[in-house]
Known about the structure:
Blueprint: E1 12-18, H1 20-33, E2 37-40, E3 47-51, E4 55-60, E5 66-72, E6 85-91, H2 100-117
Amino acid sequence: MYERLKDLPVLDSYPSKAPAAAWNAWRRYWSQTHREACFGLEGLPPLSLLLGEREWVLIDSNAYDFPVLSWSEFQDHGRGLHEPVPCVVRQYHQGASRFRDKALVLMVEELDSRMKKGLR
């Protein structure tokens, strides 16, 4: 868990679904590396993603890595590869919803790029 999340108030928390493409890209990456990933999002500077085994956190790198939103509590058991994964989204910034979908698209692009290049 990203330790800073424990100290911050959650502005909104709601059930959601991680797109199948995002979940599958992460699981492929995780199965080969077994380590967390952290990278900037070129389409959303200065935002970065921290990807842990069971939690993803979007942070603002210009604001001392302040969390913007997180995805956690993934319920991936018993699902098909094409099905989205139920999860919980927590927002720590009032503008978080503007970045949620774009961040996941950029996450898939980055992880696919890393896998193709053999970067871990």
